[in-house]
Amino acid sequence: MCRHLRWLLAVVAVLALLDTSRAEETETRSTTAAVRADGDMMKRYLLRQVDRATRRWQAAYEARTTPEQITAYQKQSRKRLLEALGGLPAPTPLRARTTGKVQRDGYVVEKVIFESQPGFYVTGLLFLPDAARFQPPHPGVVEPVGHTANGKAHDAYQSLGALLALNGMAAFVYDAIDESERIQYRGERGKYDFDKWGNYLHGTYGHQMIGIGSILLGRNTERLEIWDTMRAIDYLQSRPEVDPHRIGCTGNSGGGIITAYVVALDDRVKAAAPSCYGNALPTLLKTVGPQDAEHQTWASLSTGPQATDLLMMRAPVPILLCVATHDYFDIGGSWWTFRYAKRLYTRLGFSERIDILENDAPHNYNRTQREGIARWMSRWLLHKDTVITEPTIELLTEEEARCTPHGQVMELPGARSAYDLNEDYERELAKRRAALWANEDRAVLLERVRKIAGIRKLAQLPLPRIEKGGTVKRPGYRIEKFTIQPEEGIVLPALFFVPEFAPSGRVVVYVHERGKEADAAPGGPIEQLVLGGARVLAVDLRGTGQTQQTGQKKWGKIGADWQDVSTAYCLGRSYVGMRAEDVLVAARYAAKQLEGGPVAAVDLIAVGHVGVPALHAAALEPSLFSSVKLSRTLVSWASVIERRVTVRQYINVIHGALLVYDLPNLAATLGDKLTVEDPRDATGRPIARK
User: Fold this and answer.
1) Helix (H, G, I), strand (E, B), or coil: what is residue 663?
2) Alpha-carbon separation of residue 571 from 45, 78, 653 (angstroms)
3) Average confidence (pLDDT) over 479-488
4) What are the residue ranges of helices labelled H in 24-136?
5) d(CA 625, CA 627)
6) Residue 323 · residue 278 · CB < 8 Å
7) Helices (DSSP H) in 571-637: which residue ranges?
8) Beta strands 507-512 and 319-324: pairing type?
9) How far is CA 119 from CA 152, 185, 418, 425, 426, in A?
10) What percent of the chain is predicted at pLDDT more than 90?
11) List of domains in the chain
C-alpha cells in the first residue's frame, strides 16, 4: 500500500511539472495559480453558487409546513415569476378561423389559425370527438408541442390529440414559435433564405436568439410561449363543443416546460401532465447544463421560482410528471423534483393528486407516455379512471396538417414576428429613456444602473489577493506575471509591462476580448504604449484569455460560453456586472499599488465585447479613470433588437437594462474622457459612417 501511495504521489508530481513546463512555453502565460485559471473556472465558480442557492431553497422548503405558509409561498412565487417574465400581454381579439377539416374515424381534425397578439399568428390542430358517440361539451386539453421541425404534424403529438378525442376529450395541438409553420426570421432580404437559415435558425436556436433581445427588455422567450398557450385555452373555451371549466394541459420536452409554467400561472388548468422536462434546475446545471431560453428565468435560483416550484405553485391541482429512465435529462433530478412536490401535496392532504410516470425509454412522448396522460386527463376531467389503450392512428400528412396557404405564418397579411414585437417595445422604451435621461438626476440614474447591472461600489469591493510569478525581459521593458484573485474561486491572470527608462507616470489598464496576450506580442499595441513610457496592466477578465470557456459546445452565433452565462442568469447575475467589478479591482490595484508610487487615476483601454463592462466600470466610478478608450465595441443594446440575429451578444446582455438605460447613456456621462474607435453593431460589423 505504501509503495502504491509513493508511486501515485510521484506520478502526480511529474504531471504537475509537465503542466508547469507547458505553461512556460508561452512567455506571457501566468504560472502562479494558473492551474485554476482554466476554461472551466467560471463553471466551477457558478456551480458553487448553485450549491449555496440550493441549500437556501431546501431550508425554506423545510420550514414551509402549514397550509397558510404554503399559500403565501404560492402567491409570492407567482408574483416573482410574472415579474421575471416581464408580465403578460393584455388579451386582444383572437380572430380565430378554421382553414380546413379532415374527417377521421371517431373524430374530426380542424385546422385553426388565431392571433395570440395582434398579427402574431398561432397555427394548430383541433381534435374533436365524434358528437354521436360523446355528448358535448367535452373537456378541452391544450397541447404545446416540443422542439421538432414539423411541430403539430409530428406523429407523437398528433397521436395524443387523436387518443384524447377517441376518449371523449377535445385537444388543441399547436406549433411553437420557430417550428413548423411559425418560423420567425425571414432573413435580411425579407425572405426565409432557407439555404442560410431554414435548417439553422429554428427550434431551440431560434428561441435562444429571440431570448437575447428579450432579456434586455426584461422579458423571456417563454413569455411568448406561455401566452400562446393561455390564448389556446381562450380558444378552446370559445368553442361550444368544449366545457370551459374542464381544461387540461400537457406537452413534451419544450412543451413540457411550458405546461409547467402554464399550470403554475393559469387557474383555468384543472389537470396537467408535463413530460420530459421535470429536471431539478440544480441537477440540470450540473449534468447536461442549461438549455435554451424557455428553460430558465431571471434569478430563478436566487429569488425563484425554479422548475421544481412550478409543480407546487398551484397545489393541489392534479399533476402527472412524465419522465424517461434514459432521458438526457438526469432521471435523478426528475425524482428530486417529484419528491419535493409530493411532500408538499401531502402536507396539504392531497398526496394522490400528484404522481409520476417513468418509462424505460429515452427522451420521448411515446405510446406509454401518451396512454398514461390520456388516463390522467380522463380521471380528473371526465372523472373516469379506466385503462386507455392507443389504437392505430391514421395520421395526417404534413400537407394535410398545414393551416396556412403557403406553409408559413409570416406570409400572412399583417403578420408580426417575435422580433417585431421586441422591436415595437424597444421603440416605446427608447422614448421613455430619452425623457428619463433628459429630466432625472444623473447620479440617481447611475445608481439605478448599478443596481440593474449588479455592480458594487468600489469601496465595497474587497482588496484582491495577489500572487506573483516570473518576469520576462524584452528590449526596453520587462513583463511581470502575476494573478489577481478578487474573490473566492476567481483568478485573473495579469501581465504588468514596465519600461526600463524614464516611465511617464501614466498607467494603463488594458482588457481585450481575447485576453491579455491578444495585443502583447512584440511590436503590438501594448509594446507601443510601454516604449512611450506608460506602464500597462493587461488582465484576463473572467471568461477571457486563459479562463475563456473551451469545454462547452459552441452554439452557432450565441458563443462558446453560453451555458455559463445561462447559469449566471439563473443566479441573477450578469457577466457584464461581474466583469465590470474585475475592471474596477484591476484599476484600483494599478492606481495604488504598482511600482513607482501611487497615481491619481488610470487610463482604460478595452478592445472588443469587453468594452461593455469596461464602459459600465468607468461610468460608475469615473474618478478612477483619467481616460477611457473603447475599440470595436458594441455601439448600443438597441442594435441587438434591431439586428435580430446577432453574434456573441448573449454574454453582454443585462436583464431589463433597456427599461432604464442603453450604452450611449453611459457613454454620455464620461464626456471628453471617452474615445470610441471603430464601433460595431450587434453582428460585429463596423458602423457605417454617415
Assistant:
1) helix
2) 12, 18, 14
3) 96
4) 41-62, 67-85
5) 5
6) yes
7) 575-592, 611-620
8) unpaired
9) 20, 15, 10, 15, 18
10) 85
11) 84-413 (3.40.50.1820), 442-677 (3.40.50.1820)
Residue type for position 42: M
| 629 three-state secondary structure | strand
Could you give phi then psi for residue 647, rounded to 5 degrees? Answer: -125, 115
Contact 174, 404 (CB under 8 A): no
What are the E-state strand segments in 71-220?
Answer: 97-104, 107-117, 120-129, 138-144, 170-174
In whole angstroms, what is the distance from residue 63 CA to residue 659 CA? 36
Phi-psi group of 559: left, alpha or beta (phi > 0 → left; psi -120 to 50 → alpha; rest → beta)? left
Q: Which amino acid is at 315?
A: A
Q: Tell me the C-alpha to C-alpha distance, in Å, between residue 553 and each of 289, 543, 550, 558, 561.
A: 11, 15, 8, 11, 8
Please check whether residue 156 is in contact with residue 370, taking contact to mean a CB–CB distance below 8 angstroms.
Answer: yes
Q: What is the DSSP letter of 624?
A: G
CB 401 within 8 A of CB 158: yes
**Which candidate, 236, 233, 241, 210, places its Cα nearest to that of 223?**
210
Beta bridge mates, 535: 507
Give the pLDDT band (50/70/90) at residue 517: very high
CA distance 276 to 312: 17
Q: What is the per-residue DSSP string for 295-343?
A: G--TTTTTT---HHHHTTTTTTS-EEEEEETT-SS-HHHHHHHHHHHHH
Residue 16: is its pLDDT beyond 50? no
3-state secondary structure 333-399: HHHHHHHHHHHHHHHCCCHHHEEEEEECCCCCCCHHHHHHHHHHHHHHHHCCCCCCCCCCCCCCCHH
Q: What is the mean pLDDT of residues 623-648?
A: 96
